[in-house]
Design brief:
By secondary structure, the chain is mainly alpha-helical. The chain contains 6 helices and 2 strands. 72% of the residues lie in helices and 2% in strands.
Amino acid sequence: MSLKRIKIISVFGMFVLCFLTHFLYNWLPNCLFSIFFPVNESIWEHMKMISSSILIFSVIEYFLYKKYRINHNNFALSVFLEVSLSIIIFLIIYLPIYHFTGSVFILNLIVLFISIYFVNIISYYILQFRPLHKEIISIIGIILVYILFGILTYFPPENYLFLDTVENKYGINIYEL
């Protein structure tokens, strides 16, 4: 097993994991899951689905690197960039398409796959760089991304990115009717 092969497996593993993470909050609604998994059908909440799938599968990757004794550097930096850049890449590709076509399921899946593919290519090269000694900063970066997710879940701005078009509401909708 090589680093390249693990990254190829990761693209497909992360993509499949997105289907599971999409529904985790609905199956087990709780405060912790609301930070990591989508609580509604807004565009922004789906960024948590992508990021958490990457984060979860990165743990699997880490153990595969250890099991197969694959030399790698900058693991936390790689994960941080995957999590952060997946949001940016997805939105850059998705938003223009969304404005022209609306939400089309097959196009959404294609954009999701492309986003995961590109961040894994970036990760592959970061893992091969010389050690950059940015691991603690990267871990703090990942934590900050999820703090931002939490804040925007409970206090979303009234913007189309945060609008659940199915329920016509913003955020987690924890209030009682």
